[in-house]
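Below sits my pick:
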Amino acid sequence: MARSFAGTIALAFALFAAPGAGFAQQYPSKLIRIISPAPPGGGTDIIARSVGPLMQAKLQQTVIVENKPGAGGYLGSEAAAKSPPDGHTLVVGGAFTTVTALLHKTPAYNPRTDLVPVAVFASVPNLLVAGPRLKANSVAELIALAKASPGKLDMGSNGVGTSLHLTGELFQIRTGAKFTHVPYRGWADAMSALTTGEVDLMFDNLSTSLPNVRAGKIRALAVAGPERNRALPQVPTFAEVGVTNAEVVSWFGLMVAKGTPKEVIAVLDRTFKAIAEDAGFRQEIQKQGLDVTYMNSDAAGKFWQSEIDKWAGVIKSANIAAE
């Protein structure tokens, strides 16, 4: 009787454990979808389309990139959070994904628990850029203009609660300058508004502003990184121009839905580590003005939580809510 009971328990345990173990062994078993929660053209989309082909080659499975913009990354992130937790749907995560859910009184997903970071593998500092309409050639002149006429200068962004918007809010908190925020439907629209003089200034990823800076369409006033960037060595940091505690480095990684088997996350983690070490990927990313900054799933998870804490404070101070 005892043997029979023990055998039954062992069989039940084996049946319970087998599906997860078997699934992990055969992962990926179907097409993999990477959600880019932003329109084409910005840093998020650059990352998604750089990673996709390498994932496909390393995992021997078709990988597609699907743009799902809206609400500063909220809609695409929500879609990923509500997807089957099997590792076949991922979302490019960045600072915007961390905080846009916090702008809603009753968000459709919890950014702290419903998305699991698999890896972080690229970063780029944000950049303060001026359009042709702005009559300031330095950060000091910009702050003076803004304080002389609070709210007169227009600050463009790719949406409420995005990292570009929040970088501007943090800058205003640190300097006392007051801008009028003008959110657009995406990065391309915001940059078009800047280059044509529809708005005065913008805080942007260095990588996506770089072509327009080099073409002379916009001017780089300062970089929000801890040190000068190799792509624009002549541009000072915020700290160098007297704006302290305002550093903003946008980071990019991939995330999956809560409940994804740990074995699947481990496969993805190894895959992204190999991608981060790939010479061709590193060269392409650096050419875009980004840096390869690899964190495994555990480190990425801790970093994710710290980003939520940081930007939740800015959101509260600036009294920002979803529109």
